[in-house]
User: Fold these one by one.
Assistant:
Number 1:
Amino acid sequence: MVYPLISFLLVVLFSIIVVRVGTIALMLTGLSRDVASFQAQSAFSGVGFTTSEAEHVVGHPVRRRIIRILMLLGSAGLTSAMATLVLTFVGQPAAAAAERLVIMALGLLALYTFARSRWVDRWLSRVITWALERFTNLRVIDYERILGIGKGYGIGQFRVHPNSWLEGRTLGELRLYDEGILVLAIYRGINGREIFIGAPRRDTRIEAGDLLIVYGPEDAISKLSRRIKGPIGDLEHEAEVNRERLRRIETERALRQAASAASA
């Protein structure tokens, strides 16, 4: 009888689908795909759920509910998987156990291929998104598309070091918007407390130790995080301003070409 082996493979398939549903549900609350996938897998498996992103997850009521459901389903799924795995091999002769081991390996390989398939991923994402939109009150927002994630733009975070080009200056003085970078928020530690500054204004002064949440070209964000004080930092700023100016010229040219093609 191979029923325990079939049950084991079905439990694994169920686990893959549940984690995928949890990932998409977390993405619909605003998390990136990478973070959502990691948090869903961590919650379902019950291990590794100790990252800094986890604090933001459990502090959000909808995300916390999703994580709680994943934990409950994960506990049941892992218990069932272990039980069926034991039943698959216990009391079997060596030849039958070897045969079942081969079948299990092939089945797991097929499930791995299923889980890694881009076509399956797109199809499941559409179905799960539709179901969550239809039967839940989650806000269905494609943040990756809205923010141009994967098209050279992204949201980044970095800590301002004491010798940073940013330290001690206001956002108005820094003119980061000329580089195509927007400061979305600042986390600042004061007397052991973490203060959140959302949508900071031009007169907000950057201090050493601040954690900046920024949006813009990924390469520009990476360079900004390493920029140091002094003339070299000023030259790097001007170089990025020029690069952003060229980027805008290219965008305007592409828009004009698209408009001309549409009117032709």
Number 2:
Amino acid sequence: MLYGYEDLQNDWWEEYRRNRLSQFGTLLVYVSVTPSELAAVEFSGFRSLPATSRTLTALSSSDEDLTKDERKQISEAVAVDEAILIRFRVKARAFLDLVAETQSRIHPFRSDQIKDLNNLILEKIEVASAAARGC
């Protein structure tokens, strides 16, 4: 109020800050999936990654959006042109315990690790965008 903001603006800012602070200790994780894998995610109610025989490549981020280069890098992990980018929030500490290289942002997950990764998902999986080749 000292800066001349209205009550509605102050209330919005307080809610925004409360939501951001409630995400302390979490990471956003981005993964490219095929259309059939996305259908399996949808079938799970957007609560888990699909069982797959391939290694999933995940990119961890503290930002809400990826750069063009990051989008290209993660989309190239899927061997189809119709790759779809999904994201979800995980418990940071447990996620870092699960990955091999904690300093890297790119993390491969073998098919047998997907169950462990699913246990870390805090919120519904979101479709971030179609991750077309060459973005």
Number 3:
Amino acid sequence: MAIIVNLDVMLAKRKMSLTELTNQVGLTMANLSILKQNHAKAIRFSTLDTICRVLECQPGELLEWKETT
């Protein structure tokens, strides 16, 4: 997949653990782990909005497009 989720990078920048984010966002650890490991096939805008609010970032800081060969 060409879309990369940089959740681990943003968590490190904010010095926040995945568990802490889970508690603040209200999603399961399993769902956030899927995002963090780039195994997600889709993300709802409402979920992206909530993560961005908690991490105080823009969607473009979380999502990155890379060309695959």
Number 4:
Amino acid sequence: MKIIITFASIGMNHKTPTILFEDNHLIAVNKPAGWLVQADDTGDKPLSDWVKQYIKAKLNKPGDVYLGVLHRIDRPVSGIVLFARTSKAAERMSKAIQLHQIKKYYIAEVKGTPTVLSGVLEHYIARNESNNTSKAHTRPVPNSKEAKLEYRVLEQKGKMSRVEILLHTGRHHQIRSQFAAIHCPIVGDLKYGYPTPNIDASINLHAYKVQFEHPVKKEMIEIISAPDF
């Protein structure tokens, strides 16, 4: 199988989406922190609309553009978001996500250093709809869902650490709540216990790598986007 590697180094203060990979079936975009993936009640322009406009302009397409949103990352988080350009690709990629066949890696800067420098975090996450947060519990609680990730500390930087994370599940605020549960909240994440905000309201969490089998060509694809923190 052919492996395609796309690398984009995103500069500091980068506030405009960047196309990382595209073909007739898929498009991968680097989402700046602060952008929504899909529209919500704020009325702010979401990344999905930006991508549709990009495709429409590039192809000079007069009608509506199909775009399948395959997954989301939180508004204050930056990094790779995958979209499908056809319904066939959307169906196959959604199935691959359900079967955990798509690997998603993140880079984070966290307060302090985890007691164990590499390992697995397993919790039961319960979402609080009223304040849009999640809490990671060591045991099952009502309406909780099992959450699992792998991590390794890449570097210790004074009072914080740089960590690589591989998600095994995709729960609401999973990385943020699980690292808060081990007393290592993500830098800038006031919602989960970090003491000070980032100036731009971002948090130091970036979806930096995704690996998957192309839904049509059956090639192995790896896309990398370097964080700007």
